[in-house]
């Protein structure tokens, strides 16, 4: 994938175009079918009139059937069009903020002091630059599952939502891959495409609802029918109701299948675009592996989670036993598209958070002990915290050295690792200093060389 992500994107876009064309043909087939039925009703009406009037209306036979066909076809188009516009306007109202708040999201403030939240905000800003889109508001959902979403009709009203499970269990590279995936949806207009398809499906569904209403009204009309003319009207309405119910239901089902297929192709496109934005295929593939191996996976527990099921990074709600209506491809297929040589094993354990590792290491040290041991342990915890706040996971060699009870600094020197100039600082002090550097970086200010961590406060 690292060298073929442009080919993957072209393939996904081509598949999407063909599916949308098929969707349009399905809508056109419904309209044509109703127009043909209208023509048949018109022809039957002309023949009935000709018989009752002794053939005097036979001259109208060339006009009335086509008039009925036009009325039936135009009526179907009007119902689908108006129903679609109504549903699209409802989904657009409030933008992505409405969707994020409806699933329990909490907007993150830029001045937050939580290290994991600050890391998330930094990544969102980085991916906004990489994709060339505005920086959207970021929402955090208190969910244990690993998932994320992008919502909004246009890039200007888009938001990004991430679960607590994602920021706590994914490494920085993996979280960056997830966020890049969501920015692809914003950049490629996938949200707008999904909303339009949902709107058209709602319009088709209205046809079946009208047919259902006509069939339910038959019993009341039957009670007042005492002659052949009323009987003919009831028979025509009965046939129309059955046709609308069948075509609307069948159209909604087939349209749903096509919409789900479009959504799956856009997921492949977003995965390939995430590799393009990050130039790191292991990030997003690692996130998918962690979802596959996590206890909660990507499942969301909020009551309204199903309303945004097509927006999630991974499948967040149950979508049936069949994959035909699934809005996301299976995890193995997505991983294989990124890593063709994947061995099939998921990552069952959460990524080691360097922030939590540094804090827990510092907290686990005894209150008393030799000054050398205390200073060495503090240096080890500070290195881990600094690595985490800079967005880099500690190396395996650093972890091995940190497990040694004595001589951490000497061991690092022997291993060729540069000595730590800030060994006298505690983990909280290191976190505060790195947070200050992050604020300076976001304000596009340069830090004087050699002053960290004693730089003047912003």
Please provide a written account of the structure.
With 458 residues, the protein is mainly alpha-helical. The chain folds into three domains: 5-93 and 193-248, no CATH class; 96-190 and 280-338, Zincin-like (2-Layer Sandwich); 354-442, no CATH class. It is 63% helix and 3% strand. The protein is built from 15 helices and four strands. The protein has helices spanning 5-52, 64-92, 95-102, 115-131, 164-169, 172-187, 190-223, 228-278, 281-293, 331-338, 354-363, 371-389, 396-402, 408-414, 427-442, and strands spanning 105-107, 138-141, 148-151, 159-163. Strands 1-2-4-3 form a four-stranded mixed β-sheet. Helix 1 (5-52) packs antiparallel against helix 8 and helix 11 (354-363) runs antiparallel to helix 12. It is elongated and about 85 Å long.
Task: Describe, in short, the structure shown.
The protein has 458 residues and is mainly alpha-helical. The chain has three domains: 5-93 and 193-248, no CATH class; 96-190 and 280-338, Metalloproteases ("zincins"), catalytic domain (Zincin-like), CATH 3.30.2010; 354-442, no CATH class. 63% of the residues lie in helices and 3% in strands.
Number of helices, counting only DSSP H or I runs of 4 residues or more: 15
Overall structural domain count: 3
- What share of the residues lie within helices? 55-70%
Distance between the termini: 42 Å
Q: Main sheet: which strands, in order across?
A: 1-2-4-3
General form:
elongated
The chain-level structural class is mainly alpha
Low-confidence stretches: 357-431, 441-453
């Amino acid at each position: 994938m690292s060298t073929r992500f442009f080919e993957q994107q072209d393939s996904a876009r081509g598949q999407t175009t063909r599916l949308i064309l098929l969707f349009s043909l399905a809508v056109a087939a419904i309209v044509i079918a109703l127009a043909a039925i209208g023509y048949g009703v018109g022809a039957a009406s002309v023949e009935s009139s000709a018989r009752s009037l002794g053939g005097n209306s036979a001259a109208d036979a060339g006009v009335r059937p086509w008039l009925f066909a036009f009325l039936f076809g135009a009526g179907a188009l009007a119902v689908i069009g108006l129903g679609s516009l109504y549903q699209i306007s409802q989904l657009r109202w409030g933008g992505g903020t409405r969707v994020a708040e409806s699933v329990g999201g909490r907007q993150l403030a830029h001045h937050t002091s939580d290290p994991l939240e600050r890391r998330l905000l930094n990544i969102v800003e980085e991916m906004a630059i990489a994709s060339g889109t505005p920086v959207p508001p970021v929402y955090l959902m208190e969910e244990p599952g690993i998932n994320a979403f992008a919502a909004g009709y246009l890039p200007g009203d888009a938001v990004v939502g991430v679960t607590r499970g994602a920021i706590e269990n994914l490494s920085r590279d993996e979280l960056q891959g997830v966020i890049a995936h969501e920015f692809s949806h914003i950049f490629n207009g996938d949200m707008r495409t999904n909303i339009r398809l949902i709107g058209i499906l709602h319009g088709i569904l209205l046809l079946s609802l009208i047919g259902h209403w006509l069939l339910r009204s038959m019993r009341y009309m039957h009670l007042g029918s005492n002659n052949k003319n009323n009987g003919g009207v009831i028979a025509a309405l009965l046939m129309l109701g059955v046709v609308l119910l069948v075509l609307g239901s069948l159209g909604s089902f087939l349209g749903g299948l096509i919409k789900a297929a479009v959504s799956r192709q856009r997921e492949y496109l977003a995965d390939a675009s995430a590799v393009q934005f990050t130039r790191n295929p292991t990030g997003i593939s690692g996130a998918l592996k962690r979802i596959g191996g996590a206890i909660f996976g990507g499942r969301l527990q909020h009551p309204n989670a199903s309303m945004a099921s097509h927006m999630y990074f991974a499948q967040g709600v149950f979508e049936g036993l069949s994959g035909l209506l699934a809005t996301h491809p299976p995890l193995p297929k997505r991983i294989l598209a990124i890593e063709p040589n994947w061995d099939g094993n998921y990552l069952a354990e959460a990524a080691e958070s360097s922030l939590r590792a540094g804090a827990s290491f510092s907290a686990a040290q005894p209150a008393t002990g030799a000054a050398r041991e205390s200073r060495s342990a503090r240096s080890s915890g500070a290195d881990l915290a600094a690595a985490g706040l800079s967005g880099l996971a500690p190396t395996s060699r650093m972890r091995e050295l940190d497990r040694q009870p004595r001589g951490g600094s000497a061991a690092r020197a022997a291993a060729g690792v540069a000595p730590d100039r800030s060994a006298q600082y505690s983990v909280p002090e290191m976190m505060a200093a790195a947070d200050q550097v992050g604020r300076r970086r976001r304000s596009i200010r340069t830090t004087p060389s050699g002053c960290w961590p004693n730089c003047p406060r912003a």
